[in-house]
Amino acid sequence: VVEGGTAILTCRVDQNDNTSLQWSNPAQQTLYFDDKKGVPEKPQISGFSSPGDLMQLTCKTSGSKPAADIRWFKNDKEIKDVKYLKEEDANRKTFTVSSTLDFRVDRSDDGVAVICRVDHESLNATPQVAMQVLEIHYTPSVKIIPSTPFPQEGQPLILTCESKGKPLPEPVLWTKDGGELPDPDRMVVSGRELNILFLNKTDNGTYRCEATNTIGQSSAEYVLIVHDVPNTLLPTTIIPSLTTATVTTTVAITTCPTTSATTSNIRDPNALAGQTGPDHALIGGIVAVVVFVTLCSIFLLGRYLARHKGTYLTNEAKGAEDAPDADTAIINAEGSQVNAEEKKEYFI
Q1: What is the CATH number of the domain that holds 167?
Q2: Which GO terms describe its biological process (predicted)?
């Protein structure tokens, strides 16, 4: 065929089911004749994940006749708010359809699949799809995790700097109170860990962990307070004991009014000092005083009765005229007890 001439090609299909036919040349250019339907090409997604929070993806397909439909899906959920652009080819045989998807992303969208699907009547319910996995870049997030919540003097301590970001953060940087670590021999940095071998009070302060990637920098702080080691007390055994008090009261009575009383309190030698309880010594003293007073009263009463021992006659027995003599006899009897055997008469 001479350039510019006409070529006639014939395609025969056995058991034809009215499927659309597509002609293409070695340059992969699709050719259509008469009113045959054009099959859309597989879509292509262009665009990338920028470090910002705004993303733009474009899905494009060509060679469809009539124009194909493009639909977007994110995590199998269709996105409705999209823009479409349909362009007819110069030979007015097929259409090129493109769609642009704009949306805001955050770090939770990292690794999410976005699908562009092309629907066309010639595809017989088997749509063509293209998929783009999102790659979201974001600044690191940092936190410090201590190996123990209650650091004590003399114990080791490990501080772990946990950082996440995309791209992955570079090796972390440890500082104390805004400067370098004061004791590198005892404060060892291994990867993301700061290992303090033996804690002491000079280690108190604010420790900072910094992580950096191509997007930005982030840091976290940990305030270290070293606590004293608690004193270890021996277990205390309480021995129960009974406190016994014995009170002995001795009363000596003589013929004279002078009486001596001796009271002694004997404590149980096994009683523990400092134990609280009733004051047995006080109780014993009170009992001794009561006994002493009682004995003195008995002694005085007996002496009084002994001095007034004798035979007493009433005035009726002696006669009314002797009444004055009876009074005199009673008075004289109190001062004359020379002979206890002598019989005395008193007139009342």
Answers
A1: 2.60.40.10
A2: homophilic cell adhesion via plasma membrane adhesion molecules
pLDDT at 272: 44
Looking at the structure, do residues 284 and 326 belong to the same domain, yes or no? no
* Between 30 and 302, the higher pLDDT residue: 302
Are the CB atoms for 268 and 245 separated by under 8 Å? yes
CA 43/CA 28 separation, integer angstroms:
15
Identify which has the larger pLDDT, 220 or 231: 220
Dist CA 44 CA 31 (whole Å):
21
Question: How far out from the chain centre does Cα 88 lie?
Answer: 68
Q: For the residues of 218-243, what is the DSSP string, one character each?
A: EEEEEEE-PBPPPPPPPPP-------
Q: How far apart are CA 330 and CA 32, in angstroms?
A: 173
Full residue range of the structural domain in which residue 176 is found: 139-224
Q: What is the tens place of the pLDDT at every residue in 247-299?
A: 344 434 444 344 343 434 445 544 444 445 557 788 888 989 999 999 999 98
262, 250 in Cβ contact below 8 A?
Answer: yes
Provide the percentage of residues in the chain whose pLDDT is more than 90: 28
- 100 and 145 part of one domain: no
Q: How far apart are CA 308 and CA 341, in angstroms?
A: 14
Element at 102 (helix H, strand E): strand 95-104
- As a whole number of angstroms, the distance between CA 256 and CA 266 comes to 30
- Same domain? For 292 and 341 the reply is no
